[in-house]
Write a structure and sequence with these properties.
Chain lengths: ~210, ~240
């Protein structure tokens, strides 16, 4: 050692410790980079535990309630309905959003035309497969030209996290209006208070511009 | 001897040979920010753990609400506690020493790097704060300001969506996330040096009880200790005369 006792004493790091700190810092930087890379992408939010499982052979989309023509559709029949494609932005109420999501599916207007709601039907409740989550729209809102139910996202069937086989897409409202794992569309004469709306979020979740 | 004089003499030459490092205003300012910050970090990180994130109590998302309320509490604490404390001489002197950059800070960092790679190096004399402590303070203050600035927007948006446009909120959100993630290594380093590293953890006593061992101060903050001892001897002289 060429150093005097005083400088040896003040030495903050031994070589091993210094290299350890560098390695630890590198690891943190790596994790940070991963976290940063994950930004600008979807965050998966669900209150359904466990995540609802879609079974192609048993899945049915039920359209019922105050309608002249209740319907039960298989996955194939669903995909055979008049299809639309739209590109719209997704906004989560938490403060993040995804621009230009491409959706393929069916207009809610088409579902309304198919089912022919009774005169006193005023709202639609959307039910998830897991039976925990549901949300609702007024008929007027559901008739908006960009309101739809989607089975494909960005050109491929919805992933299980994104609500396979079907989800509600309502671009002018926050994402919690878009029930995932959709299995039942129920026409009612009152507006149902959705899962998050029972917990303080607004029933009319218009996105402020 | 006058009991008053005896008490004052005792105060400047304690038996355990400690030396006063931080008076209560500085310590209070530190902890009133540090305590809530840990709550904010913990509750914020629940974003990355879906089960925790979804935890609800009485219809409220527990960690989200805790995060926002704590954030506003920190803002209030700065206005009500920290800023008034800067009116106190000791705290202001500490802040002054913390933001004063000298050539010795450069030499200290150089010494850190040189000893880190195993070279011989003579350390500069260190005042009340070394360059690492100053760097930590600077990064912490910067991160805190950025997190509070962006956090106010997100916090208001948490309670009312009518205030800001979704686009604006969505441009602020990533900044908040970036700064917090980048600050985590800094905070971990700070915690490590304060609680684990054998030769530096004595500093924590200064921030809790306010005093540090004289021998440690001589090693790590020799220029500061010299000042303190000069002041001590002057006070003893005054007391004796």
């Amino acid at each position: 050692m060429t150093q005097g006792p005083a400088s040896a004493a003040i030495r903050l790091f031994s070589r091993a410790r210094f290299l350890g700190v560098i390695a630890g810092g590198g690891l943190l930087a790596f994790l940070g980079t991963r976290a940063v890379a994950s930004m600008g992408s979807w965050r998966i939010n669900t209150v359904e535990r466990p995540r609802p499982l879609f079974d192609f052979s048993t899945y049915r989309l039920t359209i019922d309630g105050l309608v002249e023509r209740p319907l039960t559709l298989t996955y194939d029949e669903l995909r055979a309905l008049p299809a639309v494609r739209q590109v719209s932005d997704f906004h989560c109420v938490e403060g993040w959003g995804i621009d230009d999501v491409m959706w393929d599916g069916v207009r809610l207007q088409s579902i309304i035309d198919l089912a022919r709601p009774a005169a006193r039907a005023s709202h639609i409740t959307f039910h998830s497969l897991g039976a925990t989550y549901r949300d609702s729209l007024s008929l007027e809102q559901a008739r908006l030209p960009d309101a739809m139910i989607a089975y494909d996202m960005d050109g491929a069937p919805l992933s299980p996290d994104h609500g396979l086989p079907l989800r509600v897409v309502m671009p002018r409202m926050f994402g919690y209006k878009g029930a995932k794992w959709l299995t039942r569309i129920e026409f009612r004469d009152v507006q149902d208070t959705g899962y998050w709306e029972q917990r303080g979020w607004k029933t009319d979740a218009w996105i402020p511009t | 001897m006058d009991p008053n004089v005896a008490r004052r003499l005792e105060a400047v030459t304690p038996e355990d040979d400690d030396v006063a490092r931080f008076t209560w205003p500085t310590r209070l300012a530190h902890w009133v920010l540090a305590g809530p910050f840990l709550v904010l970090l913990g509750s914020g990180l629940t974003n990355y753990f879906p089960t925790l994130k979804a935890t609800q109590f009485a219809g409220e998302r527990v960690f989200a609400l805790l995060h926002v309320v704590t954030g506003f509490a920190v803002l209030a604490a700065i206005v009500v506690v920290v800023l008034p404390l800067l009116g106190r001489r000791d705290a202001r002197a500490d802040l002054g020493a913390l933001i004063r950059v000298t050539i010795d800070d450069y030499l200290w960092l150089q010494h850190l790097v040189l000893t880190g790679v195993g070279s011989a190096s003579v350390p500069p004399r260190v005042g009340k704060f070394n360059a690492g402590q100053k760097l930590n303070a600077l990064l912490s203050a910067g991160a805190l300001a950025a997190l509070l600035g962006t956090g106010v927007v997100l916090g208001i948006n948490f309670f009312s969506k009518a205030f800001f446009s979704a686009e604006f909120v969505e441009s602020v959100f990533p900044l908040h996330t970036w700064v917090s993630l980048l600050f985590i290594p800094v905070l971990l380093g700070h915690l490590y040096l304060a609680m684990v590293h054998p030769s530096t953890r004595e500093a924590l006593r200064g921030m809790t009880g306010g005093r540090v061992r004289r021998r440690w101060a001589a090693r790590h903050h020799s220029a500061w200790l010299a000042e303190v001892e000069l002041a001590e001897s002057a006070r003893v002289e005054v007391t004796r005369s």
